[in-house]
Design brief:
heterodimer; A: alpha/beta; Rossmann fold; seven-stranded mixed β-sheet; five-stranded mixed β-sheet; 15 strands; B: 248 residues; 16% strand
């Protein structure tokens, strides 16, 4: 198939449909409105269901119901809306239901701004809702990668019976890029024998539930969840690297910010400064090992986490570097973004001045 | 020997955990019998609330989902949209439905969601230990209204059936009670009618069941039934508020 020009949000919606998603529940919020709008247009044409919920809270609980009923289901929102969805997300994680949640992040806190940001790293990766649970968090850096990851996200969710979050940002949602809808490799998936589809009088009732009233049972449920999370950590870590070999400074950045960092790396190279990039594609599970391996290289003098936030992922970079090399942070928040020039200048400061 | 009465197939084997004198047990039985008698139980999918009926998922002999507090109508919406031919129901108390879940029930009714809600109103939060609900009567004592509900401070109790009956797509709305045999029979008729309305695809249906909470009302089961008749029913009059026959 030839490449076509697609807007990020619409491409994400089309990718979900191509992955077999036939149920979408959402609520309007900028900058992700083209996702529900696309779904509202397309779903009736393909015998699917788009429903505009009365709130993000209702939308995520509709997702819970549909996922529990065995369907491929998605919702999308942006930061303040994701805060509202966190209640449902912890229930979905607790009841081990598969679904895909898209977050086109905007500036915060509070109503914040409607411009792109990466300040939802904590609420995506560090337990946005209550209890011990994990989301699988995928961070595409281009519209093409978003399309590929969204399609795979449904399989990942089904394989592990776990919610998957696509963590984009307003830039990703709003920009247009060439896209090719490729046939994504299908995983072999277990049957949804647990889903509530009616007993047909042939089996005992299925119950979709996150309540374990006895403390020992609840503890054991948590232990089981963490066995699953360990399996995901073993199998699903994804990371992209650029010029890390012989780099003096290694940037760590994800999503659209990683592309800005690449420009900074290229301009530093012109000045004879060797810089590289580690780009986590999965934010959870996090590629700690890639950071650790870079930290052990003699050439690497320092890390710099570059984010559209006041510094959230930098904590994981520090965990990965584990004190072996210093970790610095550079970022802009609230809808502002770092420039290649700003990043390069900060890098030079860290390396002890311009060469 | 002829069988004159047996436990309905609509109920599972698990004994109820409810307090002595609580009417949840009767209401569970009526819902289960209705689903069985209408041949809906094998395809039915129910949604349990947060509150005293939280374990309803263990009692009904059909597939069940446990929802977050107040969100049962949203959860049921997701289920029904996936399985439009199944009987989908929510079973909710007054804290769950009339307080934290007020938005979800109103909008499920507004959309004419083809689900049936069994709304059990005992004018108090039972599971958490007797706090004031939106349905607590004026003057009625609760742990968070120790001097009795003051209408100038906490407002007037919410009449859910009357409110929902103003919504065009809420096509069957009836308030019933289960304080004696006559009323139990009437309640079952209403519950069956609600499920039939759903299966005919006409819209949203709700049966409000005025109920007791002897434990948190501080009364014996018999006193509680008497108090219900003397105090609850005057403020929450029984009867049908919307009926499909009126719906064009």
């Amino acid at each position: 198939m030839a490449k076509e020009l697609w807007k990020g949000n619409e491409a994400v919606a089309e990718a979900a449909i191509k992955a077999g998603c036939r149920f979408f529940f959402g609520y309007p919020i900028t900058p992700q409105n083209e996702i529900p709008e696309y779904m509202a247009m397309k779903m009736p044409q393909i015998d699917g269901c788009f429903l505009q919920a009365e709130s993000e809270v209702a939308a995520i609980n509709m997702v819970y119901g549909a996922a529990g009923a065995g369907a491929r289901v998605m919702t999308s929102s942006s930061s303040p809306g994701i805060s509202l969805k966190q209640e449902g997300i912890t229930y979905i994680a607790g009841a081990e239901l598969p679904c895909v949640i898209v977050n086109m992040v905007r500036g915060g806190p509070g109503l914040g701004s409607i411009q792109p940001a990466q300040s939802d790293y904590f609420q995506a990766c560090k337990g946005g809702g209550h209890g011990d649970y994990r989301l699988i968090v995928l961070a595409p850096a281009s519209v093409q990668e978003a399309v590929d990851l969204v399609q795979e996200a449904f399989d990942i969710a089904d394989q592990y019976r776990n919610p998957v979050m696509i963590l984009g940002d307003g830039m990703m949602g709003q920009m247009m890029e060439p896209v090719e809808f490729k046939e994504v490799k299908k995983r072999s998936l277990p049957e949804k024998t647990w889903a509530t589809v009616g007993t047909k009088g042939k089996r005992k009732p299925n119950v979709v539930n996150s309540l374990y009233i006895d403390a020992a049972d609840c503890h054991n449920h948590n232990v089981d969840l963490f066995k699953k999370y360990a399996e995901i950590e073993k199998n699903e870590v994804r990371v992209d690297t650029y010029n890390v070999e012989n780099a003096e400074i290694v940037f760590v950045a994800y999503g659209t910010t990683a592309r800005i960092v690449k420009n900074a790396i290229n301009s530093l190279a012109k000045e004879g400064i060797k810089a590289g990039l580690i780009r986590p594609v999965t934010l959870w599970p996090y590629p700690y090992k890639a950071i650790e391996e870079a930290a052990e290289k003699a050439s690497v003098k320092a890390f710099m986490s570059v984010e559209m936030s006041m510094g959230q992922m930098v904590e994981d970079v520090k965990l990965g570097a584990n004190g072996k090399k210093p970790v610095y942070f550079y970022g802009k928040a609230g809808g502002a973004f770092p420039t290649p020039k700003g990043i390069a200048e900060e890098a030079k400061k860290i390396l002890g001045g311009a060469k | 020997m002829a069988v004159v009465f047996e436990k309905t197939r609509g109920l599972a084997e698990k004994p109820f955990h409810y307090c002595p004198g609580c009417t949840h047990g009767i209401i569970h039985r009526l819902v289960a019998e209705s689903l069985d008698e209408l041949n809906l139980i094998d395809d039915a999918i129910g949604v349990a609330p947060v509150g005293c009926a939280v374990f309803a998922y263990d009692y009904f002999n059909c597939d069940m989902q446990e929802a977050a507090h107040g969100r049962a109508p949203a959860t049921a919406t997701g289920i029904k949209r996936v399985h439009p031919k199944s009987a989908v129901f929510t079973y909710q108390g007054d804290g769950d439905l009339a307080s934290i879940g007020a938005a979800e029930i109103v909008h499920a009714a507004m959309r004419g969601e083809k689900i049936t809600t069994i709304f059990v109103n005992n004018a108090i939060y039972g599971m958490t230990g007797g706090q004031m609900a939106p349905t607590t009567l004026v003057g009625q004592k609760a742990t968070t209204a120790p001097y009795g509900r003051d209408e100038n401070h906490a407002g007037m109790p919410l009449r859910i059936s009357e409110m929902l009956a103003t919504i065009p797509k809420a096509v069957f709305v009836e308030r019933v009670s289960v304080h004696d045999v006559k009323h139990i029979i009437q309640a079952k008729k209403a519950i069956k009618k609600a499920f039939q309305t759903q299966m005919e695809g006409k819209g949203f249906s709700l049966v409000e069941v005025v109920s007791t909470c002897p434990t948190n009302w501080g009364k014996t089961p018999i006193e509680a039934l008497k108090w219900l008749q003397e105090n609850m029913i005057p403020y929450y009059p029984l009867g049908n508020f919307r009926n499909t026959e009126e719906v064009k």
